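The methods section describes the discrete structure representation at length, but only in general terms. Since the whole study asks how a given chain folds, the encoding of that fold should be made plain. An entry of this sort, consisting of the sequence and the corresponding backbone structure tokens, reads as follows:

. . .
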Amino acid sequence: MIDLYYWTTPNGHKITLFLEETGLEYKLIPINIGKGDQFKPEFLSIAPNNRIPAIVDQAPADGGNPISIFESGAILQYLAEKTGRFLPADLRGRTETVQWLHWQMGGLGPMAGQNHHFNQYAPEKIAYAIDRYVRETARLYGVLNKRLADREFIAGNEYTIADMASYPWIVSHPKQQQNLDDFPHLKRWFNNIAERPATKRAYARAAEVNSQPTVHDEEARKLLFGQGAHTVK
């Protein structure tokens, strides 16, 4: 049994994509980040960075006590190693997959996240910031589009955790001011993943958990965007 501490964000979707693909038994535990659940002591004991997702594996492979993992990329790699799925066993395939997983974690996710913030949530529309992150998001889309020109999936011809990490960040392409028609190889990849049964199940779970935007009032805005050193206790 996997306990998944989750909210309906791109990083949260990464893990439900994996769990639905593999059929691993899991318990979904909502962490409403718009209401401050991420600051509760019981969650911080698992995820000290007060961010979702996080998991607790109640039956780790070594047979020991339950093990907790935070950071979505680390969770994907852990689950792939646990199940022997979606991460190639050979050196070259594994390296391809892991480097693109890190590309998403260090590039696509943070830059698209800043794009979302300055386009949708910032109280002041700062033209320079919006232009900066829209352009960088487009550059990253271009990198991914080029990568997919001669292969079905990011790491080759097999679906891997690299795809699961990147796909949720492309779902919001209209809000990022990106047109998938400008990136035909990425668009083909995106549409193929969207049609996978596990993808549909994962996003159906999201709709069950949360049917409204996370940032929908001023209190949520303060919780999500007013954090600093003072919030780390």
Observations:
- The mean pLDDT is 94.
- The beta strands are 2-6, 26-30, 54-57, 67-70.
